[in-house]
Structure prediction request, 426 residues.
Amino acid sequence: MTDRTSAETLNRRRFLGAASLAGAGAALSAIPALAGETAKSEALITDVQDWQRYLGDGVDKHPYGVPSKFEKNVIRRDVPWLTASAESSVNFTPLHDLDGIITPSGLCFERHHGGVAEINPADHRLMINGLVDKPLVFTMDDIKRMPRVNKVYFLECAANSGMEWRGSQLNGCQFTHGMIHNVMYTGVPLKVLLDEAGLKPNAKWLMLEGADSAGMNRSLPIEKALNDVMIAFAMNGEALRPEQGYPLRAVIPGWEGNLWVKWLRRIEAGDQPWQTREETSKYTDLLADGNSRKHTFVMDAKSVVTNPSPQAPLKHKGRNVLSGLAWSGRGTVKRVDVSMDGGRNWQTARIDGPTFDKSVVRFYVDFDWNGQELMIQSRAIDSTGYVQPSKDELRKVRGVNSIYHNNGIQTWLVHSGGETENVEIG
Ligand SMILES: Nc1nc2c(c(=O)[nH]1)N[C@H]1C(S)=C(S)[C@@H](COP(=O)(O)O)O[C@H]1N2
Ligand SMILES: [Mo]
Prediction:
C-alpha cells in the first residue's frame, strides 16, 4: 500500500459515476466470513522469536512512557503550503490512527497564532477585572484550591474542513477533519471565579486574553461564561501540554476552538463585545452576497468516517470494521447513519463507548466487503433533532466564500482494490 500521508497527495476530484454502485447495499449483509485463518504450522507460532531470546528493558528505561517504535507513523502532520509560518499555523490530529473517544494528549492538533508560550506556572497569573466589584488576581496555587470538575469535551477549530468548501481537496481525514480533539479536562467552573469577583449587573461580555506573543483575545457572552465554561489546568489527567495552553486555558464547550483562549492571563468584564482583530478580520463567515455571519459560535453536528479513509484503505475482503466520530456543539449525538452507496441507502451505526454532552462519540458498522466500489458517507443527528447537511445543502445557504463552519457530509470512494479517496458526489 502506498503511503498517502504526505501533503503532496493534494487532489481535486469530483466523482459522478454513482451508477456503478447499484447493488452496493449487498455489502451491508450480515457477516459470514471469519477474520482469522484455520490454524496451520507457521514459524511465527512454532519458533522462538527474537524478542523472546533476551531480557527486555527494565522499568527505569522510560520514566515517562512513549508509544511503541512500531507506531512511529502515528503523528500529527501539517500542510506546509496552508500557512506562511509554523509559528502561526496548524497541525492535524491523525484521526484515522485512533480509536475510542479520547484523543491522546500528544496527538491533539495545535493551532497557534504566535507560537507556543513557555510559561513557568509559578510566574503565571490570571486577572479578573473590568465590570466587577473586586478585581482579583489568581496564582496557579489559588486556582487549584477552588472546587474543580472533570468534563470530556471536543474542541473543533472553526476552520476544520475549511479547505473543502469549494470541492474535495485534501486526501485524508487527518487533513479534512483533523482540527478536532476530545479530551477530559480538569478545572474550575468560570462561574466560581466570577462569583468571587462579583459581576456588576451591566457586565454582559467577557474578554479573554492569552499570554502568548499573539496576545490572542476573544469576546464571550456572559450567559455562556456562567453556564458551562471552565478554566482548565489539566487534560487527560495530567497538566495541559505547553502547546495546549499550559498552565491554564479556557474551555468553551461546543463553541468554536478560537474562543478557547490558551495561556489564559486575563478576563475583563464589559458591557459589549470587544472589537478585536480576530473578530473583525477572521472567524466571520463570508456569504455569497458579501455579507458576513457574525458570532457563529456553536459548532453544528458533524461526523466523519475515519476508517476506511484515504490514509487507511481497506486491506481485506470479507469481514471489516467501519469506524468514525460524530459530535455536536448543541448537545449529544443521538444517532449516526452510514451509507455505503453515496447516500441512497442508510443504516444506523452502532455507537460504542460513553456519550457525553458536547463530546465526540465513536461509531461502528461491522460489514462484509466483497471488493465492490463503495461510496461511504456518515451523517450525525443530535439531541436537538438537527441532521448534518450535505455539502450542497450547506453551499445553497452559505455559498462557497466561507472558510469556517463547514459541517457537510464527507464522501470517501473505496475502489475495488481498497484504495480510498476524497470525492464529492455531483
Ligand atoms: N492564546 C491563544 N489561544 C488560542 C489560540 C492562539 O493562537 N493563542 N488559537 C486558538 C484557536 S484558533 C484554536 S482552534 C484553539 C486550538 O487549540 P489547540 O491548540 O489546543 O488545539 O486554540 C485557540 N486559542
Ligand atoms: Mo481555530
Q: What stands out?
A: The mean pLDDT is 90. The pocket of molybdenum atom (ligand 2) is lined by residues 111, 157-159, 257-258 (CB under 6 Å).
